[in-house]
């Protein structure tokens, strides 16, 4: 299944990686405004507006996203700021600014929003990642494919689940990598001459017939490199600073490599960088022609701490992937151990006592749901005998946020996991329609734990996947160990509420939380 999932991802990203291909389709698309297709339905783009590619980021009209995905948008004319809201999450972007605000957390953009007439264009990748959408891009006809944005209620039998990522047939992709020649005249289509690609600086000495790097992208916490020709990549992990180095011996950059070379590496050769905004454990991903004789293309993934990885190569597509979404190789993350010498897991049932938390549509209290799940998960963990468990509370008592942190710190816990139920205020538009599961973290070192726990959370609930979100929450910010907060579902949604107070979902969630903990710890 994992192999099949990777293949779908490859096919979705392949058109983006191979932006350098010239041909009839590319030439004809030069006059096209582009297309946006969401769940196999083409959306209407305002007249006079074209999709743009700025620094590798596809820019689309914000109104198209808002009107068709049910987002709420606010436009401040004086400050030229756009605020997009959905499911209680808020993202604010400003025209001309390369930073954005996501629930109080400042994030970097690789392309600033821009205003064309009365329409604001925003980087779709950033917005999609923040709101849990999936994106595909077909450069041949300038088409953006979106999926996963519909808001459905699991309790409504007439609603359907968000459709999966576009099928491979929806995103045309070459079945093989065409040869790239130098010095040829471009194809002439409808009076438009496709110019000869400009050779990459420093690559002119690459022998004819050598493997060529066509393009690269960093997405879904993976580096994916498209290579034409036979090459065996070499990968090395280094420290001071921590980084993963991938060399392609004998390879040069293709004349139309889908990237730019604005900088110069330590060896004096031109180098460029990929966009890694939104990946706090990745400092940068840079590339350069490391050696001319023999030619060698090098990619460097600079990381926060030593990150586990997995290298794979798909000969049928020419795609080389360095996947950072892998658990550590059986080693326990740094932290304390219990009196038995086992890792310590702190389990936190949100709210309690006089602090009831959210009140569901039928008057049920969030604090009771949180405690039920935590007690079930704790019992299963203790039965496993693999870890020691510390609870912040085991009964209905009032407990401050800092006290929860203090309990975990005193136990020298390796992990901190807090369980909550979500809700929206009465005045929120379509309050009872918003649903889904979310996982929150505050510190970069907590992201790997968030990724694993969120996978298990969604598997347990079957609710809409609202994604992993970074937010400054006290219990995930002030703890020193990796910490996450699970928002299981919305108590203001009939379907979510009904399922969350069932023994079936609570038992399933407890099992998945335990499975996620064991997976993360490598036990």
From TrEMBL:
Which residue ranges does the record assign to the MurNAc-LAA domain?
405-518
- Cleaved signal peptide residues: 1-26
GO CC terms: outer membrane-bounded periplasmic space
**What InterPro entries does the annotation carry?**
AMIN_dom, Cu_amine_oxidase-like_N, Mao_N_sf, MurNAc-LAA_cat, N-acetylmuramoyl_amidase_3
Judging by the UniProt lineage, the source's domain of life is: Bacteria
Please note every region of biased composition (Low complexity). 148-182
Q: Which GO terms describe its molecular function?
A: N-acetylmuramoyl-L-alanine amidase activity
Map out region (Disordered) in residue numbers: 148-208
Task: Kindly give the Pfam families that the UniProt entry links to this protein.
Answer: Amidase_3 (PF01520), AMIN (PF11741), Cu_amine_oxidN1 (PF07833)
- Keyword list, A-Z: Hydrolase, Signal
Q: Which GO terms describe its biological process?
A: peptidoglycan catabolic process
UniProt name for this protein: MurNAc-LAA domain-containing protein
Q: In the record, what lineage is assigned to the organism producing the protein?
A: Bacteria, Bacillati, Bacillota, Bacilli, Bacillales
């Amino acid at each position: 299944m994992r192999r099949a999932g990777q293949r779908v991802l490859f096919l979705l990203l392949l058109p983006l990686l191979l932006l350098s291909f010239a041909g009839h389709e590319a030439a004809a698309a030069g006059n096209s405004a582009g297309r946006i297709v969401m769940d196999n339905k083409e959306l209407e783009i305002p007249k006079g507006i074209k999709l743009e590619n700025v620094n590798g980021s596809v820019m689309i009209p914000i109104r198209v996203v808002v009107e068709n995905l049910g987002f709420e948008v606010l436009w401040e004319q004086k400050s030229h700021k756009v605020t997009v809201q959905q499911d209680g999450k808020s993202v604010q972007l400003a025209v001309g600014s390369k930073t954005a605000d996501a629930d109080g957390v400042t994030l970097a953009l690789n392309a600033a929003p821009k205003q064309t007439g009365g329409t604001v264009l925003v980087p779709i990748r950033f917005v999609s990642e923040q709101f849990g959408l999936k994106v595909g891009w077909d450069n041949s006809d300038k088409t953006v494919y979106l999926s996963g944005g519909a808001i459905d209620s699991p309790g409504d039998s007439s609603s359907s689940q968000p459709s999966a990522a576009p099928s491979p047939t929806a995103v045309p992709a070459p079945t093989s990598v065409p040869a790239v020649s130098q010095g040829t005249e471009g194809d002439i289509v409808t009076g438009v001459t496709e110019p000869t690609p400009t050779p990459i600086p420093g690559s002119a000495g690459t022998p004819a017939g050598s493997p060529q790097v066509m393009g690269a992208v960093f997405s879904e916490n993976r580096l994916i490199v498209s290579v034409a020709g036979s090459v065996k990549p070499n990968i090395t992990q280094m420290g001071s600073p921590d980084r993963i180095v991938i060399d392609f011996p004998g390879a040069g950059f293709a004349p139309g490599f889908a990237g730019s070379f604005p900088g110069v590496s330590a060896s004096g050769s031109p180098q460029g960088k990929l966009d890694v905004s939104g990946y706090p454990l990745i400092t940068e991903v840079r590339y350069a022609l490391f050696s001319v004789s023999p030619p060698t293309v090098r990619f460097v993934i600079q990381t926060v701490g030593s990150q586990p990885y997995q290298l794979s190569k798909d000969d049928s597509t020419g795609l080389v992937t360095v996947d950072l979404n892998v658990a550590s190789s059986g080693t326990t993350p740094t932290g304390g151990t219990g009196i038995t010498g086992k890792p310590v897991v702190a389990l936190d049932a949100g709210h309690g006592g006089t602090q009831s938390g959210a009140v569901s549509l039928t008057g049920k209290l969030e604090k009771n749901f949180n405690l039920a799940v935590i007690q079930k998960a704790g019992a299963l963990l203790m039965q496993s005998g693999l870890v020691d468990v510390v609870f912040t509370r085991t009964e209905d008592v009032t407990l401050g946020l800092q006290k929860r942190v203090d309990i975990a710190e005193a136990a020298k816990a390796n992990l901190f996991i807090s369980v909550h139920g979500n809700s929206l205020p009465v005045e929120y538009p379509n309050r009872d329609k918003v649903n889904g599961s979310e996982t929150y973290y505050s510190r970069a070192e907590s992201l790997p734990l968030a990724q694993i726990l969120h996978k298990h959370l969604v598997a347990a609930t079957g609710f809409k996947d609202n994604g992993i979100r970074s937010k400054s929450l006290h219990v995930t910010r002030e703890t020193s160990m990796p910490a996450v907060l699970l928002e299981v579902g919305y108590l203001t949604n009939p379907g979510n509420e009904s399922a969350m107070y069932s023994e079936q979902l609570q038992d399933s969630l407890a099992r998945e939380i335990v499975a996620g903990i064991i997976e993360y710890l490598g036990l």
